[in-house]
Amino acid sequence: MLYIRMFLYLAAGVLAGQGLAVFDPEAGTVTFHLESVATLLGGVAAFAGTFAASRFAKARGGRT
């Protein structure tokens, strides 16, 4: 569970550092810029998909 929490801290830092998430201290809210986040999620989905495909191929005896 510690690895998941540390990854979430990293992800939050990256989102804030790239300007994808902005904290408004007066309102106490976090705002996400959806167009930019959608681009980021597309890249993450492509990475996860290729990783899953390679694991599937390796499990069936193929080389990756």
User: Span between N and C termini?
Assistant: 29 Å
The fraction of residues assigned to DSSP E strands is 5-15%
Instruction: Indicate the overall shape.
Output: elongated
Task: Tell how many strands the DSSP assignment holds.
Answer: 2
Radius of gyration: 17 Å
How many structural domains?
A: 1
- Give the helix tally: 2
Helix/strand order, N-terminal first = HEEH
Q: Would you mind describing this structure in some detail?
A:
The chain is an alpha+beta fold and 64 residues long. The chain has one domain (2-59). It is built from two helices and two strands, in the order αββα. Strands 1-2 form a two-stranded antiparallel ribbon. The protein is elongated and about 55 Å long. The model has no long low-confidence stretch (mean pLDDT 84).
Can you lay out the helices and strands and say which pair or pack?
Layout: H1 2-17, E1 21-24, E2 29-32, H2 34-59
Antiparallel strand pairs: 1-2
What's the quick description here?
With 64 residues, the protein is of the alpha+beta class. The protein has one domain. The protein has helices at 2-17, 34-59, and strands spanning 21-24, 29-32.
